[in-house]
Amino acid sequence: MNLQATDVLDATSEHHRPHRPAIPASREGALRVLVVENDAPAADTLLKGLLRQGYVAHSVGTGAQALRTHHDADLVLLDLDLPDLDGLEVCRGIRAVSNTPIITVTARGSELDRVLGLQAGSDDYLVKPYGFRELLARMDAVMRRVRSQQSATARIIDHGPLRIDAAARVATLDGEPLDLTRKEFDLLYLLASQPDTVVPRRQIMAQVWDDAWSPHGRTVDTHVSTLRGKLGASGWITTVRGIGFRLGRP
């Protein structure tokens, strides 16, 4: 199916399009796809095709909307020609705070455009017009790579007497389980996964709280303080002033 020539749902401009809520909760096993496309008929055609294939799909027509909603998606299909922001900037903005896979779907087809798209953080690049089956194949290929990487990182981390099982979401110290909240566990796992690295506040806010724009708030400090208490020594987490935090070895 060619997306420029098949069943187009009735749609008008972005201004007349009904408001769509955030991406709905995924059905079991269904991939949540965010379509970022300024052309309403093209977006609705693509949505129709994805829904027929069993995906949970949602579309937005601006870069600002994409930056607000991408956290709810498992995969982003991103057009570069948007009315408010250049798609490359949107791609960089998503990639700065998230590892969500991005496939650029655009009419910009030169070699330089492809290079810039991939350098901006896109996982794949597809030029319009394209076949729908090719898009599905590329989506499957990207998600296979992502799931393989996730499987490799969902491991057990041993750091001295501290042991973190990412799959079971259990952390123990000297064999005793730690009573951690979800965010405390995510923060500890992030630090432990980079034991010799200072993890910046912005990265912590982005990966643990999905908020890269409030790096100087007290949220991180409060959780670090609580974690130190539960670990029994302040030396477990070292503060690097003005930068972030590093897992220590008390």
TrEMBL record:
<dbReference type="InterPro" id="IPR001789">
    <property type="entry name" value="Sig_transdc_resp-reg_receiver"/>
</dbReference>
<feature type="DNA-binding region" description="OmpR/PhoB-type">
    <location>
        <begin position="154"/>
        <end position="249"/>
    </location>
</feature>
<dbReference type="InterPro" id="IPR001867">
    <property type="entry name" value="OmpR/PhoB-type_DNA-bd"/>
</dbReference>
<dbReference type="InterPro" id="IPR011006">
    <property type="entry name" value="CheY-like_superfamily"/>
</dbReference>
<keyword id="KW-0902">Two-component regulatory system</keyword>
<feature type="domain" description="Response regulatory">
    <location>
        <begin position="32"/>
        <end position="143"/>
    </location>
</feature>
<keyword id="KW-0804">Transcription</keyword>
<dbReference type="InterPro" id="IPR016032">
    <property type="entry name" value="Sig_transdc_resp-reg_C-effctor"/>
</dbReference>
<keyword id="KW-0597">Phosphoprotein</keyword>
<dbReference type="Pfam" id="PF00072">
    <property type="entry name" value="Response_reg"/>
</dbReference>
<dbReference type="InterPro" id="IPR039420">
    <property type="entry name" value="WalR-like"/>
</dbReference>
<keyword id="KW-0805">Transcription regulation</keyword>
<feature type="region of interest" description="Disordered">
    <location>
        <begin position="1"/>
        <end position="24"/>
    </location>
</feature>
<dbReference type="InterPro" id="IPR036388">
    <property type="entry name" value="WH-like_DNA-bd_sf"/>
</dbReference>
<protein>
    <submittedName>
        <fullName>Response regulator transcription factor</fullName>
    </submittedName>
</protein>
<feature type="domain" description="OmpR/PhoB-type">
    <location>
        <begin position="154"/>
        <end position="249"/>
    </location>
</feature>
<keyword id="KW-0238">DNA-binding</keyword>
<feature type="modified residue" description="4-aspartylphosphate">
    <location>
        <position position="79"/>
    </location>
</feature>
<dbReference type="Pfam" id="PF00486">
    <property type="entry name" value="Trans_reg_C"/>
</dbReference>
